[in-house]
Each structure stands twice: as structure tokens, then as C-alpha cells.
Amino acid sequence: MDAVSGRKNVVFLVLDSLRTDRVSAYNEDVDFTEHIQAVADRSVVFENATTQAPWTLPSHASMFTGLYPWDHGTTHARSYATGDHETFISALSDAGYTTSAITPNVWITPHKGMTDGFDTVENFLAADNSLSRRIAKLSTKLYDKLGTLPKRILGRQIDRTFQLFGIDDSCKSEETVGAVEQYLAERNPEENFFCYVNLMEPHEPYHPPQEYVDKHGVTDESAVPHRQKDMFTKDDIDFGELEKMYDASVDYTDDLVGRITDALDTNDLSEDTVVVLLSDHGQALGEDGVFGHQFTVAESVIHPVLMVAHPDIEPGREPRPIELRALHDLIPYYAGIESTRPEVFQETVRGGYEFPENFTGYIPSAEWDDYYRQQRYVTRDGTKVVKSTGEDGNSRYEATDLDTGETVPVPADLKQAVDEIGEVDVGDGSESGPDADEAVEERLEALGYR
């Protein structure tokens, strides 16, 4: 990792749910990510990154704080950040950076406690105001005080209620990119900036413009699952059509990335700006009958895209294992506010998720035990061990040789490592943390949650 000199702007571009095998920088057979490839050509491409959780909120919380989910406590079981942990965004702000978040992702909003430290937030939620946030905090306290069974019942009823309404499921990508273009054009040229951007197109539901659908040969959109619940309710799912629709969405995302990098060039920012392009997690597209990312720690989900284009750092490939939570230490260094290069590579990487309280409203009772589980995973020297714990407290272990994909005996040292991963104290509801008001609930449902 080369030395950096002077302060740089930072664009932190998260492409939600983007798989590595759909990006030419990781798979030379891909021919529809030329704009991301242009970023990769001037980047350090991290070949072996691991996310600390297979969905947005805890993954981002780990990136922002440098902590594991079981330490920062933002999990499937508590879907908000408490604000008690320092983030690299606050560090940049304290160093004089202007900080902005431009995201249609409702997990990264003031309602979820994830935007502390940002000077400005554009989340395209009309209900984003002080009153809605106070109401949201109260609803969270009340919800947290419920027991597990009442939460499940309430989740199912909310899900059924939302089915009665037609809800806009747009990912608001055009609005997001337009806001980024405006931000870059109107920024104060005397100030360094950090701009967080989230593009949702690789995330279900999939509605790329028709030209991309046609380009990738999708012939039967009705057979494509658009939400996690479709796995339990649709009888005619075609995973081949799903893959083509996903590719169409990634293709569209790539062109959106091109607009953002063009805006950097247009505003003469490319030589003074670090571009961190990543996914917070990947996506399962039917492997072993699994779709989505809420209930799986498959390799296609936990190994995200990560590349860093820095004006002072020579491009290349980095094969050493790295956790996404290392970005908490790397970003201040890349920005130039920390002069010491952090030690970010490690022999063993870890991650996991809690019992998925927020996603149980549509799980059929017959399949409950397959999905309502706590997962932990560790990887070392090409071997991955997953510990899966059921509601009864019983755990099962599985080890995989990542080079061959074959199941192997569980190494004793990795079993010990996965057993040592901590438990999460989700509290008793006494902490004040925001949850979704009506507008946020609608966006969550549009993205397939609840």
C-alpha cells in the first residue's frame, strides 16, 4: 500500500448487492461493466474482501465504526444504530471535511441512526423531519419491548397490510445520480469533501430500463422473483431469467457509475479525489434454491466488490484477506488526515448475523427452522466454517474448501474461532434508536423487506 500525500476528497460509492462475478475486474467473461472496469484500471482491486454481515445495515455499521456486528449491536434483531460509536465520517468532519450522504436506501437514514456525522443527507423521503424522527424513536422503543412472538405476529400483519396497497418500488437511481452530479458541481471548491453514495439497482426488486432488459435477453419477467417473499409464494420461478434480469440491473448500474465518474472529470476533481467503489454484500441468485441475502452466508453474498482509485497509489491487485470493517481505518488514511498506514490485513476474517427478526413476516411455518437461525462464519487459509444455530440453541457446523467448493471436516482451530464470536445484547428497548415511520415503511416494503 503506497504512501499518500496531502488531503484528498473521497467519493464512497456503494453498489448495493453487487456480486463480484458480475464485474469484469473479478470475472473477465463479463462484458457489460466497462465503467466500473475503468475505475478498476486505476485502482487497487481487493480480490479477497469479506463483509461482516450479509445485509446493508450491519454491514455499513461495521464499515463506519470498524466493529463487528456483535460489538456495535446493529443487527437483524435490532435494526438501528445507537449512535454510541465513533465513525470515520465524524473523523473527517472533525478534520474540516464537508460530509454528504446521497442515498435512497432507507437503512442509511437519520431514521435508522446511520447518518450521524454527515452535514447533509438526501434520502428522498418526504417524511424526513424532526417530528417523524421523534415518532420513529418512540415506535422503536415500543417495538423493542415486545417479545419474539408478538414481533413475529406484528411483522406478518404489517406485511399483509402492505400487500393491499400499490407501492412505488423505484430504486430512485436517476434521482440519486442527479443529486450527486449537482453536489459535485455546486460544492465549495475551497473545502475538501466526503460524499457517500448508494445505488440500489443490483438490489431486488429488479426494474432496469427496458433497453437493458432487452439487451440481456429477458423473455419472461413474470418468472423473476423480485422480493424475498416471492421464494415462498411464486410457483413458476425461473432462476435463469432471474440471472439475466440481475445482469440487466448491473449493466444499468455500470452506466450510472459512468455518469458519476464523468461528473468528477467535468468538475476537474479526478486528480484530487479518491473513489472507493464497493458493494456492502452480494446476492444469491438461485444457488441451492436461495435468492436474496437476508438468510444466507453463501460466498456469492459475503465476498463483496472493493476497489480504491487513489491519485497517489499505483493500481494493482491485492489478494490478501481484508474485512470491510477495515474501511473505518483506511478512509482517514486515504483522505490524508492520518499519515500512518493502518494494518488492515488479517489471517482470519469473521462475520455473521442474528436471528432475522425483521424478515420473518413471510416465512412459512414448515420452513421456519431453515431460515430463523443465527449464522456465524470464519475464513482462514482458504477454509470457511459456518456455525448455524437454531431457535432451540442447537448448532451445526460446516466447513468448505473455497478452492474446490467441497465440504471438508471442520478444523478444530476454526471451530474454536467461530465459537468465540460474541453474542449481541440487543437491550430491553430502553435505548433511544430510530425506526421507520410510514414513508420509511413503504420504501422498505418496496425493497422486499418486512
UniProtKB/TrEMBL annotation:
Residues 387-407, 423-450 are annotated as: Disordered. It comes from the Archaea. Residues 8-311 form the Sulfatase N-terminal domain. CDD domains: sulfatase_like (cd16148). InterPro entries: Alkaline_phosphatase_core_sf, GAG_Ulvan_Degrading_Sulfatases, Sulfatase_N. Residues 423-440 have a biased composition (Acidic residues). Residues 387-399, 441-450 have a biased composition (Basic and acidic residues). This is Arylsulfatase A.
